[in-house]
Each structure stands twice: as C-alpha cells, then as structure tokens.
Fold this protein.
Amino acid sequence: MLQVPFIRENKDLVITRLAKRNIDATQMINDVISFDEERRRIQTELDNTLAESNALSKEIGNLYKSGEAQKANILKEKTSQLKETSKELNDALNTKSDELNQLLYKIPNVPNEMVPNGTADTDNLEVFKEGAIPVLHEGALPHWELAKKYDIIDFELGNKIAGAGFPVYKGKGARLQRALIAYFLDKNTAAGYTEYQLPHLVNEASGFGTGQLPDKEGQMYHVTEDNLYLIPTAEVPGTNIFRDVVLNESELPVSITGYTPCFRREAGSYGAHVRGLNRLHQFDKVEILRVEHPTKSYEALDGMVAHVKTILQELKLPYRILRLCGGDLGFTSALTYDFEVFSTAQDRWLEISSVSNFETFQANRLKLRFKNSDGKNELAHTLNGSSLALPRVLAGILENYQTEAGIVIPEVLQAYTGFKIID
RNA sequence: GGAGAAAUGGCAGAGUGGUCGAAUGCGGCAGUCUUGAAAACUGUUGAGGGUCACACCUCCGGGGGUUCGAAUCCCUCUUUCUCCGCCA
C-alpha cells in the first residue's frame, strides 16, 4: 500500500510511473488526495469537539470537588450536546477513512524507473543469459514423458488422491526433490540467510499484510472452518514475521530463508503450457527474504540476483534473467527480475525464480519499521525471491540432463541424492 | 474438551473512577569521568493523527457499553499461562 504523504508530495511522479503498468491512475490519485483532505478536515473538527468536552469534564470534576453541584449540572447538559456531535463526526471519519483505504488497496506499487515499458511478458527485457543449451540425443523427451519412463513422478496417482496438479514423487524422484531442497537451503544459509521453518497456513491478518488480501483471495486455498489460508508462497508467513515490528537500525539487514510447500488454486489456467510440472496446485519452493535499509535495498536486490545466479551456474543449467516490464510486474513489486531455465525438450523458457524489491509497499501495510539514526521510526524495505522453485528446476534437470543411458544427476547434487543417474 | 488466572510502553512491572500517556527497574541514546573501555553519576527515551512550529486529538489485547469523566466498572471476543483430559 502506498503512503498517502508520498502520493501528496509526488503526485505527478506517481501517475507517470504507474503509467508503466498501462494504467491511467490520474482519477485514483486525485481521489486519494481529496479523500485524504476531507479525512483530515473531519479529524480536525472531531479533535476540537473532543478537546472542548475534555475541558468541560475537567471543570465538572473541579466543581464537584468544591461542592458546586448545581453549576456542574449545567455544564453536564452542554457535554451531552458535544457528545452527539462527536459521535456523528466519528462516524463520518470512519466512513471517509474506509473509503480512502479501499482506494489505496487498489493502487499497485509505483514501478522503479528501470522498469521497461510494455504490456506482456514478451516485452520483458533480457538482461543476462548464460549456459550452453545442450544438444540432446535423438528421441529426447519432455519431462512428463521422462517421469513416466523412469517411474519417478506419478501425475495420475496424484490426481486420484487429490486432483490434477498434485503430483506424487516416487523413489529417486522423491529423493531428488529432497536433495534439491537441502541443496538450496545449504546454499542460502552459506550466503548468510538464516533458515526458518514456517507455518503452512496463515490467518487473515497475514494475508492482508503481504497483499494477498483483500481482492486476491481466490488464488489461495481457504480453510473456512478456521478461516485460515494455505500459503501460496513462503513470502506470506516469512514476511509476516515482521508485522508490527520496529527493528533497531543495527539489526538490518535481516536475511532469512525457508522451505515450504506452496498451494495455488490457479483457477482457469489450462492448456498445453500447464502440462507436467509446468504448473501445479502444490509445489515446493525455497524462498529467500530480506528486510533492508531503504538506501540499501537495490544493492540487496542485485545481491540476491547474483546469489541465485551462482546456484544455476553450479547446476549447469542454461538460464536467462529478465527485468519485468510494467505490464508483467506484480502488484506489490517496484522492480522484479525473473529467472528462466531453458527446457530443451519443450523448446521454451520456464520461470524458476522471481526476485523483487517491494520498497515500502509491503512494509506500510505490515507496519514494519526500524528506528533510524534520528531516533524516528521509518518504514523498512522488503525483498524476496525464490531460491529456488522446485518443479521447473526439476523439469529443467530431467530434460537437459537426459541421455540415452538415463538422466544424469548434476554433480553438485550427487552428494545429496546418493546416486549419479536415474535409469 | 473441562476448571481457574491473566493481558499495561523495547522488556519486566506498578497502577480499582478525574491531578495517568501511565511509577519503578532493566535496556536504548546523549553527556561527565577515563589514554580508551568498564563501572559510577547526570540527562533523555512509547506510537499514530494534526500543525510551518505549537496547541490539540487518539491509543493501556480487539469490539461494545455505563459515566460529565474509564488503564481502572460492566458485556463480549481473542490470546496466553496453570491444573485436568486427550494425543504425534
């Protein structure tokens, strides 16, 4: 959620930057400013009324003390009048504040000036590419065929137990999953991230804190009996660690990592592009998350990108990095880099990581602040990224490492899997 | 699930109708002393709104009520703790 004083002071900039998302925010921004003015006007009026009645109450107390009950009773009548007025003003204030907030929830984050213009994923800017695309043998298969051939993932069994999009990993497939999780966590902790195990269900306040609620509840599984949501990403419980927290400046930056399953309803997404592991209702992901000083968040973003790079280099997978254009940028993000691994057998790029700087957008909702050098509470910046999402990394490994003899396990993973080939 | 107790500032903890945004201790910050540090001493130190700055307003778990006036009384919800039950 954007900060109203920021909007007030940077109206034109906000409108221009939001235009990168291909929206004309002029009306919304003007409304924010006028709603806020109105809100402050009512607030002032209410404050004055309350001040008056506070003063009268004090006076009444003094009159009783000095035994002048009659005078006190006269004043009492006055206060009942003020009470009514303040009740009315208070209702008006609440209405106006709600109106303002409802509007603010609808306004996405202001894109960084580096965000390229564009309307779709085809407009994303490729900023880096590395890794040779392997030449596969005759008859190379997409990963869903390989999964069947080597009996390591059973999509139909998952369908029987839960439904489409809930695969069952078996044997070496299950072990490879576990190996990847352990490997990612080890890489992240070696880079200074503290490992956390987080709840897989969150309450409403947490969903709200990271921006899934309101409006996007349809994307999450909802346990109505207890009003809990299955997490769509570790970002939700991870970032909400810091809800209503004031950190000391010396505690920054905070770097945490965690493995969680992720649950996404992904309503209405069907077709060839969602085959196999490409899109699932339940998948595993290792997330990295940072809370940063506002002056250092972009440096941190670069650091996170560099970190994810090292993992892909070690896995020896062909990948590229995209800077997302305004049309593809997430609601809460100011700048996002996507990592994509090349799926040779499908001949297409698969998104495996998304690393974003949210600046103060999440922190404002979360009330995540730090005490700055002036001793004032200031909103911190939050960032997060996948390091990494499992299914498409797995797809990339299966497809790019396939040989006629079987699927070779990348060298760095062999210590974790305990085997060198799936055959 | 049953019974009881509790929820106050970064933490601990006092405060049962007005002078309480709130004692005290710890912690934090600044200073004195010191070559430096520690100790000691002195001062300072909750948040949000509002204002050029003051004034002023709101907040003692959440919501509602009683009262001229509520941290304090009443109702309700939530959470935590203790005991019992169940249990990986």
In short: The radius of gyration of chain A is 27 Å. The domain at 121-422 of chain A is CATH 3.30.930.10 (BirA Bifunctional Protein; domain 2). Chain A has two domains: 4-105, 121-422. Residues 40, 43-44, 46-51, 53-54, 56-62, 64-65, 72-73, 75-80, 83, 246, 248, 371, 375, 377 of chain A lie near RNA strand B (CB under 10 Å from a C1').
